[in-house]
Amino acid sequence: MSMISKFVWMNGELVPYANATVHFLTPALHYGAAVFEGIRCYATDRGPAIFRAREHAERLIQSAEVFGFRTFPWTVDDILQAFRDTVHANEFVECYVRPLIYLTDGGWNLNVDGGQPSLGIAVWEWKNYLGHDAMERGVRANISSFTRHHLNVMMTKAKIAGNYANSFLAKTESVRLGFDEAIMLDPQGFVAECTGENIFIVRKGQIYTPPIATILDGITRDSLITIANDLGYPVIEQPLSRDQLYTAEEVFVCGTAAEVIALREIDFRTIGQGYMGHVTRAIQTAYHDAIHGNHPRSDEWLDYVR
Ligand SMILES: Cc1ncc(COP(=O)(O)O)c(C=O)c1O
Question: Does residue 156 have its Cβ closer than 6 Å to ligand 1?
């Protein structure tokens, strides 16, 4: 995967890729004092379009507020324009968009008010987050030995950079064990989410997903709940146990990077028939239509770059 692009947007300027650097003594680098978003821009008949750009810009600002940043020079509309300008300047047809608000110029005493927020936005071409045949074949997952954050330890609604040390622990363990992704349980032992995806199960024609209390309120999760309802599958938000995953007919995970991926095996137990089930396929297909501008929901969800 190449992350090279022509420009990175930094505090209002489009800076050549090679010059988009920060100093070693940037506090965000030492303490994870930053918040970010993961967004995708897709090719459509009307040119590149950013999926649910406004919701991502709003969540970025909310994450910054949750972390404690109090003043920003940028509004949601400024950030939306910066997303479009960055994609346009780099001439990508499809790309991943990564904004980061990070603490600069102080904050070494662990006080957010001691530093300043900076905003950077990078774009790069990134396909197949969970591997190139994951979309069709599904992937294998394990229940992590690491617990997802307790609500009052880290703020699970915010994409705070430091939160992702927990995801790194779980994902590294999972891959070293030979799996593709880790499922994390919350401190009470209920299924929470994966290291970078939300999770759904299908049982007797009903779809279930954990409530948002302890997890990231995923934008793909929200889109899939709408798509599933449109397709006539009501989605029930309720706490799920580990063995409900093992006995589900279908399990799938979703996120901006991964999109919609079936889990074909969990902890060496085959899920359903061991390949993507028909409910997952219907939702995956509708999601792909939506992100590429070919679905009745596309107009409300796509932000055309030009
Ligand atoms: C921990 C976690 N859960 C869920 C998701 C899915 O969120 P979204 O669909 O907004 O990308 C992500 C990805 O951002 C994540 O990092």
Answer: no
Q: Is this prediction's pTM over 0.90?
A: yes
Token pair, residue 96, equals 């991943």
Q: What is the DSSP letter of 130?
A: T
Asked whether residue 76 carries a pLDDT value surpassing 90, the answer given is yes
Look up 157 and say whether it is catalytic.
no
Q: Which two tokens stand for residue 211?
A: 């409530």
Structure confidence by residue, pLDDT tens digits, 151-170: 999 999 999 999 999 999 99
Whether ligand 1 lies within 6 angstroms of the CB of 303 is answered as no
pLDDT tens, residue by residue, 243-267: 999 999 999 999 999 999 999 999 9
Q: What is the CA radius of gyration of the chain?
A: 19
pLDDT (0 to 100) of residue 214: 92
**Angle ∠(251,167,42) on CA atoms, nearest 5:** 65
Do residues 149 and 113 touch, judged by C-beta distance below 8 A?
no
Phi, psi of 82 (to 5 degrees): -65, -40
**Which atom of ligand 1 is nearest the CA belonging to 215?**
3
Task: Return the CATH number of the domain spanning residue range 7-124.
Answer: 3.30.470.10
What is the CATH number assigned to the segment(s) 134-291? 3.20.10.10
